[in-house]
Amino acid sequence: MKLEYIVGIIAILFIFQFFYGVAIHPDAEYGGADGEAENVITAIDPTYEAWDPGLPTFEPQSGEIESLLFALQAAFGAIIIGYFFGYYRGKNQVNKQ
Amino acid sequence: MHIFEGFLPSPWWQLWFVFSIPIILYGMYKLNKLVSAKREVVPLLAVAGAFIFVLSSLKLPSVTGSCSHPTGTGMAAVLFGPSITAVLGVIVLIYQALFLAHGGISTLGANVASMGIVGPVVAYAFYKAASKANMNFYLNIFLATAIADWVTYVTTSIQLSLAFPTGGALTVSGFLTSFYAFAMVFATTQVPLAIMEGALTALIMKYVVEVKSDVLVNLEVLSTEAVNKLKGALA
């Protein structure tokens, strides 16, 4: 079977598991798993407080800005991947002629 | 797998830096050597780095009602080996720590150790062993990538349990109880994610074989015969 079909089926199953998750946890907040690990830390050691290394840090001012930065990250990566694949594909075609 | 800024107490964050820094330096040395010896691999290196960049920015929802992201390090590990992957991982992690407040500078050592080093090392070892055993190339990539993803999160769980053993003192049972708690958080989210990531990486590798197979031979990822066989299957 073509690999594309297999990946397509896996992607459909993946989407399905998301909707299944929504169905069985209708009130779930869909936060990050990293944040949940934080809750486990608090459960194990309620007195622990994150220490501040004193470095100047930048925190996105809102969820919107954060998603912008994530989108930029994905877009830059995707441009690089698409550019080189397109470049090689074109080069191969020219070489074949 | 991001351990947030300040969430690793002393001495753990220092210890993970001690663990990671020599490997990163070795990776930079290898990277320099590779780039000057084999100029033609640079675009593929950029693609592998971009792949980590894209995948680690995708926060995907999972069945348990939490989101997490793939690591994307499997492909770089198979192509360039784990030490170069560690360098690529550092770049992505620094970006996320500085601009997104995901992860942190103090926990960078620990995050690089899990995502950039331990996961890729296991993926690389798996890939090499499985290709010796003549496993189908794409299945091999799929499994190596999924394993890299899982191992990354297992490593994070180990790092957190070492720093936060149940009961306060680091005992075997305290470690195991904590490990179970952390691993449960990640396992349910990461199992479907890793499968998706593995499938995607296998597909990307198929396109690499299609358009630039000579680099794969050059990097000793595949032998010439193996490439010809795969290309024959494509035609």
Automatic annotation (TrEMBL), chain A:
InterPro entries: CbiN (IPR003705). One of its GO terms (cellular component) is plasma membrane. It comes from the Archaea. Pathway: Cofactor biosynthesis; adenosylcobalamin biosynthesis. Belongs to the CbiN family. Forms an energy-coupling factor (ECF) transporter complex composed of an ATP-binding protein (A component, CbiO), a transmembrane protein (T component, CbiQ) and 2 possible substrate-capture proteins (S components, CbiM and CbiN) of unknown stoichimetry. This is Cobalt transport protein CbiN. It comes from Methanolobus sediminis.
TrEMBL record, chain B:
The chain crosses the membrane at residues 12-29, 41-58, 78-101, 108-127, 133-155, 162-185. It comes from the Archaea. It is found in: Cell inner membrane; Cell membrane. InterPro entries: CbiM, CbiM/NikMN. GO terms for cellular component: ATP-binding cassette (ABC) transporter complex. Keywords: Cell membrane, Cobalamin biosynthesis, Cobalt, Cobalt transport, Ion transport, Membrane, Transmembrane, Transmembrane helix, Transport. GO terms for biological process: cobalamin biosynthetic process. The keyword Cell inner membrane does not apply. It is a multi-pass membrane protein. GO terms for molecular function: cobalt ion transmembrane transporter activity. The keyword Manganese does not apply. Pathway: Cofactor biosynthesis; adenosylcobalamin biosynthesis. HAMAP family: CbiM (MF_01462). Part of the energy-coupling factor (ECF) transporter complex CbiMNOQ involved in cobalt import. Belongs to the CbiM family. Forms an energy-coupling factor (ECF) transporter complex composed of an ATP-binding protein (A component, CbiO), a transmembrane protein (T component, CbiQ) and 2 possible substrate-capture proteins (S components, CbiM and CbiN) of unknown stoichimetry. This is Putative cobalt transport protein CbiM. The gene is cbiM.
